[in-house]
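Record 1 of the preview.
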Amino acid sequence: MDAVNPYHFVTNCIFGKWKMALLHHIHHYGKIRFNETKKTLRVSEKVLSQQLKELTRDGLVERIQYNTIPLKVEYILTPLGKDLIPALDILYVWSIRRLNELNLPIDPDAFKVHTEMKYQDQLKDIMDKYIDEQNAR
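->
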């Protein structure tokens, strides 16, 4: 077996348009349900299903199926998924700062589930700027 580059390994686990957002969403809410998440993140059913399957396959998310009528399925973070959250937080803060420095518009939804003090402590000025801009519209 060939040696595996750790950067390639981690990007394979979290690469995908919605994977990091899904991991943080599950972290923020404790669990998610498919249809609610599809509406909240405005992601297609196909992509959401594919990315949740990959996150489950990679051991970051656990799919819990309740044998009820109608069928109920929830997704939670595994301990491995929880271990990734501090790294995702660093990437989130870096990205917000860099987008702001480049004067690129930041999706206002980026601030909706990042409300904990750890984000406000580091990004208060940028968050306040976006809140003011949103209120002015």
